[in-house]
Fold:
Amino acid sequence: MSNEVIISSVIVLDDNTRFTLLELCRLGQTSAEWVIELVEEGVLEPEGSGIGDWRFGADALKRLQAVQRLQRDLRINLPGAALVLELLEEIEMLRQRYES
Amino acid sequence: MEYKDYYKIMGVEKTATQDEIKRAYRKLARKYHPDVSKEPDAEQKFKEVGEAYEVLKDPQKRAAYDRIGSQWREGQPFTPPPDWDVGFEFSGGGFTGGDTSGFSDFFETLFGRGAPFGASRQTYSRNFSAQGQDHRAKILIDLEDAYHGASRLISLQIPEIDDAGRIINKTRTLNVKIPKGVKAGQQIRLTGQGGPGIGKGRQGDLYLEVAFRKHRYFHAEGLDIYLELPVTPWEAALGAIVAVPTLGGSVELKIPPGSQTGHKLRLKGRGLPGNPPGDQFAVLKVVVPPAKSDADKAIYEQMARAMPLNPRVGMGV
Structure:
């Protein structure tokens, strides 16, 4: 196939992944202010004591992107999006247990 | 090209007020939002509803759409009548505001393609740069692939900007190497495989979210693999060594004497690869042999006499 692209190097965002605040902002195409808001809301829980040495796991990027989509598509405010995320995660856990 | 019945998609009457349309849209958007919905075709439905709303929320577009006539049915082959859009502001196409990538040919023919980032493309100056949008897709893989690693061909509809500055959807096939040890819910990032950048802006990224296809007898919880293992009453009571399938092949498992249904036996390090690797758990299920012949029945009766048991003790009956 002529338009096939071979991707040999992919980045798996696994349990060992850590992002700085700057990296997370760049990947999420968003501002540090907004990420700080997410931390204050408890949506993201970075390791490290001060903003300068915050380290975010791979899950943080996934949650951040989900909040972006929920806010954009459903006009949910931040506490609402945080609640939706928590409920979705709980449903996912229950579903896994139910299906097993 | 097929006719799209936007009123039917939104579940409203043709006479619906703008408020009714807005309410219907919000309800459907919540129902089919790909982050929220578990319906297999949620993404498709969400886009359809978005497309219908893009037309019906705008009185100009809605009036033009209505003018095409009500004799059309959803899915019918459709060609727009000549001069159907004369007298409306958007005539000529290309004035759609929203992110229209993924909208149907029907929409494109009537209302044109939008520009990325929700802005009309005429507003870009030559020096404007912006990073392309990130895209995401789900990728369904077998547990065996997560264990061994695998290559997968993925076909994606990728919007690209052509020479005339229009957005066109191109099908691109990516050959993605799935590294071993991926977990359900994890994202795989493919740098620069997302939406096109504008100006000097770099391409967006593509995120593939991993989900496992349902396996015949395994299921994963994180890196751990679970398996329901059927055993006979004598294997459970007396203990035995039985062959057990694992993702890495068959292994011998020692069942201790006095085992029961529900007992969980651990095969350390036999789960998905990782650091440390997951375990496999065999959850025992005692299978009772049917009493088919008189001889079979005699054995059960003998058991009942020799080792009476009330498993319902403590249930108050």
